[in-house]
Amino acid sequence: MSWRSGTSPSKPTDARTGIAPQYRPPGYTQYSTFQPTFLYELVFDLCCAGLLIWLGHHRRIRPPGLFALYVVGYSAFRIFEESLRVDSSQHFLGLRLNFYVASALTVAGLMWFYLSQRDRPASPVERPSVTSRTQETPQPH
Q: Quick count: other Cβ atoms within 10 Å of Cβ 68?
């Protein structure tokens, strides 16, 4: 579903984002306006990209740290966005399955970032042992 097709899978609002009656989600036909989640996601994605570009230039972040932060940011935003959606989705323990996936990816992204940025102990380098061979000099008899 998308804004272009006149559909919106989000909760009703007073904003001017009208949806034609034939495209309204079941159970929400009495509402003509819905949250513009597509717009929220667009604005967030642009801000997130700008922040990550800034971080890449001003902070020392080891690869793949910026991508891990993108996973964290996008997934955390999806948690918020899933609370606005009213379209059909699988539910588990009263919440949308998408909410749990976004939560798991947020935690996984945080762990990935932490692990990729922490200082690793230097691994011992295998060096050939240096043995000094002394040449035996013949002793005079």
A: 21
- What is the model's pTM? 0.72
For 66, 95, 116, the CA distances from 60, given in Å and listed in that order, are 10, 38, 12
* Structural domain span for residue 45: 36-117
Residue 58 lies in a domain: yes
Q: Is residue 49 part of a domain?
A: yes
> Which distant-in-sequence residues (6+ apart) come within 8 Å of 84 by Cβ?
10, 11, 35, 37, 40
Contacting residues for 106 by C-beta, under 8 A, at least 6 apart: 71, 72, 75, 76, 79
- Residue 35 near residue 15 (C-beta atoms within 8 A): yes
Residue 123 within a domain: no
Q: How many domains does the chain have?
A: 1
What are the tens digits of pLDDT across the range 121-136? Answer: 766 666 555 555 555 6
